[in-house]
Specification:
The protein is globular and about 35 Å long. The chain has a six-stranded mixed β-sheet, with helices on one face. Strands 4-5 form a two-stranded antiparallel ribbon. Helices cover 34% and strands 21% of the residues. The N and C termini lie far apart (37 Å). It has one domain: Peptide Methionine Sulfoxide Reductase, Chain A (2-Layer Sandwich), CATH 3.30.1060. The protein is built from six helices and eight strands. With 187 residues, it is an alpha+beta fold.
Length: 187
């Protein structure tokens, strides 16, 4: 809980969890972004099991946020703008159900807001294709192994981080400057 006793949680999948975690850790009002697995049938799956595609789990990030500092709608806006929600079971070179675009909502209100946003985005014509993001009720979250946590912060110089994650973080920093924890002014 934060100082005001407020905390809301949503569980999001949009490809590799390293990318999603790096994005949400940057946002003011996000108190925690934890990489893990959700939506499958195997209890306490390992990374290797999830990567096989056999568990039904998606790589996800459980986002805890203060709704007085950042709205759920803003969380979704960032989510939809930092991954491709129109590709089924795929993000870039990552292919399989474990990389699906998914919102595991924790409340009926989250489901309603997410459904409204999906409908608005689909009718706006701003995306190349229809949104295929799965909307599912949250049931269980399994925290990923420790070496997956804060992966981008720890491994920013790794090729995957430089080529895949860094551009997404830069896009976030350009488009959501008013929502960042650490605003760096350009002089």
């Amino acid at each position: 809980m934060n100082d005001n006793g407020l905390k809301e949680i949503v569980t999001l999948g949009g490809g590799c969890f390293w990318c999603i975690e790096a994005i949400f850790q940057e946002l003011n009002g996000v108190e925690e972004a934890i990489s893990g697995y959700s939506g499958g049938s195997v209890e306490n799956p390992s990374y290797e099991q999830v990567c096989s595609g056999a568990t039904g789990h998606a790589e996800v990030v459980q986002v805890a946020f203060n709704p007085k500092k950042i709205t759920f709608k803003k969380i979704l806006e960032v989510f939809f703008s930092t991954h491709n929600p129109t590709t089924l079971n795929r993000q870039g070179n990552d292919v399989g159900t474990q990389y699906r675009s998914v919102i595991f909502y924790h409340t009926p209100e989250q489901r309603r807001i997410a459904k409204e946003m999906i409908d608005e985005l689909n009718s706006s014509g701003s995306l190349e294709g229809s949104i295929v993001t799965e909307l599912s009720a949250f049931s269980v979250f399994y925290k990923a192994e420790d070496y997956h946590q804060e992966y981008f912060k720890i491994n920013a110089s790794q090729p995957y981080c430089k080529v895949i994650i860094q551009p997404k973080v830069e896009k976030l920093r350009e488009n959501y400057v008013d929502n960042l924890k650490n605003v760096k002014l350009k002089l």
